[in-house]
Amino acid sequence: MENREKNHTEDTAEALKITTPAHEHIASPAPAPLEISENEEPFDEVGVISKETKVMGDIITKGHLEVEGVVMGNLNVQGDVSIKGEITGEISCRNLVVNGGNVKASIVARGDVKISADAVAEGGIKGNVLDIAGRVEGNVDAFEALKVGDAACIHGDINTPAIAVELGAEIQGTIQTFKK
Amino acid sequence: MATKDNFVKALKELTGFDEEGAAAGTQAAPQEKAEETPSFEEKLQEAVEESVEEPAEEPVAVQESEVAPEQPQPAHEELVHTDAPKPVNANIADIFAEKTVVESAQGSGETTRITANMVVIGDITSTDRVDIFGRVRGDIQTEDDIVLEGVVEGGISGRNMLLQGSALRGNVLASGDVAIESGSVIVGNVQAENVKLDGKVKGNLFVEQMTQLTENALLVGDVETTGVAASVGSRIRGNIKTKQANDISEDEEFILEV
């Protein structure tokens, strides 16, 4: 009877990666960090940090993420990220859309980055196709193309193979275009 | 001697083991039960009909015993919320059968969702509802409800809580009700208004009102509550203390001379 109970407990423990204790001292293995694979397709799930939520720590996900609240930590996302709130830290993701909000983070995107007109991004931006319509403080590195909107303001150095700047954009820094 | 005979007789009548009045006694007892059960079932029917509108509901199984039957599983978006404090003598089935969909009163009315393949290493503070399907290593604190289907290493604090197939190593502090479904494991204390336990808890339960342990429940720890209902199959190892027993004078209660 006890053996059966123990086996059942072990199965559940295995599945949930936490040991149910038989003694007072409870050993608990650290949660295995998720392996973010840059080549894999992200899971079709969207995590949401809602507007009234604050996360003080890092977020790792194999799916997509929407940040409408405040995140003080790094993001390591296999899929796409949409930011409407605030984030302080480093962002690593596929595509990134900043729709308003404040990003105090260095961005390394495997895909495209879009910064809306009312957004502020401090920290460098690296991505494939960048569409900047808001304010960016820091260096901008595009691997394919960069489009700077008319309300945009970039304070930093730009490196891109192709650039399009609309009339009215403000750029302070060097611009280097290079052949891909 | 006469007193003793009377006492023993009274005791026998109370427990239904009246040998002398065997025919009358045994006939009376089952009849009483037969009368009781329909009204109990009637109440249940009402309660079940009330909750029939809600989707994803499992049929309510009516047990013969007077202990509350299995409750329909609430869908993710609808959480169990009981009304303001009920009198202690209220039918246990009623308390857990009445469901009101609780809209979040605070916050933006949205949900924070930690999806299944997501890991948060840090604390989460919110006023919105929090659904956790992934893993969190840190505390979760919100003013709204929490649905936990993942793994949390840290404490959780909120209003009403539903733990389905989850593991939690930390304390649960709920201002409302907590439902722990079978398949969930908690190592830590649970404090709430009402608790419905069908999973495993290693820790103490501090429950303001009703505590219900159903057939898959396993509790290693103490219970401090107003009322307890334990189904056949529930395993409990610990002390149970009801609040009404806080001030009892054993000398006054247990008088052996009648």
**Shape of chain A from CA axes?**
globular
How many domains make up the coordinates of chain A?
Answer: 2
Secondary structure: number of strands of chain A: 19
Low-confidence stretches of chain B: 18-38, 47-107
Strand content of chain B: 25-35%
Which two protein chains have the largest interface (Cβ within 8 Å of the partner's Cβ), and how many residues from each? A-B, 38 and 38 residues
The amount of helix of chain A comes to under 10%
Quaternary structure classification: heterodimer
Flag low-confidence runs of chain A. Answer: 5-29
Main beta sheet strand tally, sense and closure of chain B: 15 strands, parallel
Structure description:
The complex is a heterodimer of chains A (180) and B (258). By secondary structure, chain A is mainly beta. Chain A folds into two domains: 1-32, no CATH class; 40-177, no CATH class. Chain A is 8% helix and 48% strand. Chain A has one helix at 2-16, and strands at 46-49, 54-61, 64-67, 70-72, 75-77, 81-83, 86-93, 96-98, 101-109, 113-115, 119-122, 125-132, 135-137, 140-148, 153-155, 158-160, 163-165, 170-172, 175-177. In chain B, the strands form two sheets. Chain B has a 15-stranded parallel beta sheet, with no helix packed on it. An eight-stranded parallel beta sheet of chain B has the order 1-3-6-9-12-15-18-21. The N and C termini of chain B lie close together (12 Å). Chain B is of the alpha/beta class.
Question: Characteristics of this structure?
Answer:
A: 180 residues; mainly beta; B: 258 residues; 15-stranded parallel beta sheet; eight-stranded parallel beta sheet; 4 helices
Question: Topology, please?
Answer:
The complex is a heterodimer of chains A (180) and B (258).
Chain A: H1 2-16, E1 46-49, E2 54-61, E3 64-67, E4 70-72, E5 75-77, E6 81-83, E7 86-93, E8 96-98, E9 101-109, E10 113-115, E11 119-122, E12 125-132, E13 135-137, E14 140-148, E15 153-155, E16 158-160, E17 163-165, E18 170-172, E19 175-177
Parallel strand pairs in A: 1-3, 2-4, 2-5, 3-6, 4-7, 5-7, 6-8, 7-9, 8-10, 9-11, 9-12, 10-12, 11-13, 12-14, 13-15, 14-16, 14-17, 15-18, 16-19
Chain B: H1 2-15, H2 22-51, H3 92-97, E1 111-114, E2 118-125, E3 129-132, E4 135-137, E5 140-141, E6 146-148, E7 151-153, E8 156-158, E9 161-163, E10 167-169, E11 172-174, E12 177-180, E13 185-187, E14 190-192, E15 194-197, E16 200-202, E17 205-207, E18 210-213, E19 218-220, E20 223-225, E21 227-230, E22 235-237, E23 240-242, H4 250-253
Parallel strand pairs in B: 1-3, 2-4, 2-5, 3-6, 4-7, 5-8, 6-9, 7-10, 8-11, 9-12, 10-13, 11-14, 12-15, 13-16, 14-17, 15-18, 16-19, 17-20, 18-21, 19-22, 20-23
